[in-house]
Amino acid sequence: MASGGLQLLGFVLAFLGWIGIIISTAMPQWKMASYAGDNIVTAQALYEGLWMSCAMQSTGQIQCKVYDSLLKLESSLQATRALMVAAILLGLVAVFVAVTGMKCMKCMEDDQVKKMRMAVFGGVIFIIAGLAALVATSWYGNRVARAFYDPFTPVNTRFEFGSALFIGWAAASLAILGGAFLCCSCPQRETSYPPTRGYPKNAPSSGKDYV
């Protein structure tokens, strides 16, 4: 029962992490800059994400623009996109594999060992997906920090960490932690002992003595 509870907890955490990775990928707030110009009416908050850039006016109106061309983007941004999309696809595969190996499901009930191995395999895929998302968000955050502390970067064009980065870090951690819990449900090998040999039984006496 304890193993089943740990398995269920791991799947829930990994699934929530996968949902968080999807949300983080879709959000435009990967980096943000907030500043006020000479006129407070023209104050803007600028956001940039993996797919679009947005500007929010002081009145609350938000205008977003999708990036025009994929080839015009920086190679680092394209690599971040690829890692996040790969993490989402790996998470989708991990969901189906882990669900098949869950003890509460009726699939593969005739072979419990293979069933538990499927859950472990799903946990491994969750860990890989979480690592891909963690690398993507950390790499992007490192670029934002380096540009912020660069003395040649104008003050009014410096960006800070956006909320999507924090969601991505938390989601990647949940996916890795949940995948680790799923891997803990690996079936233990039973120690096999050689069969004990019984002593030969004496033949029953017939009551007759032969000379």
TrEMBL record:
<keyword id="KW-1003">Cell membrane</keyword>
<dbReference type="InterPro" id="IPR006187">
    <property type="entry name" value="Claudin"/>
</dbReference>
<dbReference type="InterPro" id="IPR017974">
    <property type="entry name" value="Claudin_CS"/>
</dbReference>
<keyword id="KW-1133">Transmembrane helix</keyword>
<dbReference type="GO" id="GO:0005886">
    <property type="term" value="C:plasma membrane"/>
</dbReference>
<keyword id="KW-0965">Cell junction</keyword>
<dbReference type="Pfam" id="PF00822">
    <property type="entry name" value="PMP22_Claudin"/>
</dbReference>
<keyword id="KW-0472">Membrane</keyword>
<feature type="region of interest" description="Disordered">
    <location>
        <begin position="192"/>
        <end position="211"/>
    </location>
</feature>
<dbReference type="GO" id="GO:0005198">
    <property type="term" value="F:structural molecule activity"/>
</dbReference>
<dbReference type="InterPro" id="IPR003548">
    <property type="entry name" value="Claudin1"/>
</dbReference>
<feature type="transmembrane region" description="Helical">
    <location>
        <begin position="79"/>
        <end position="99"/>
    </location>
</feature>
<dbReference type="GO" id="GO:0005923">
    <property type="term" value="C:bicellular tight junction"/>
</dbReference>
<feature type="transmembrane region" description="Helical">
    <location>
        <begin position="119"/>
        <end position="141"/>
    </location>
</feature>
<comment type="function">
    <text>Claudins function as major constituents of the tight junction complexes that regulate the permeability of epithelia.</text>
</comment>
<feature type="transmembrane region" description="Helical">
    <location>
        <begin position="161"/>
        <end position="184"/>
    </location>
</feature>
<feature type="transmembrane region" description="Helical">
    <location>
        <begin position="7"/>
        <end position="27"/>
    </location>
</feature>
<protein>
    <recommendedName>
        <fullName>Claudin</fullName>
    </recommendedName>
</protein>
<keyword id="KW-0796">Tight junction</keyword>
<keyword id="KW-0812">Transmembrane</keyword>
<comment type="similarity">
    <text>Belongs to the claudin family.</text>
</comment>
<dbReference type="InterPro" id="IPR004031">
    <property type="entry name" value="PMP22/EMP/MP20/Claudin"/>
</dbReference>
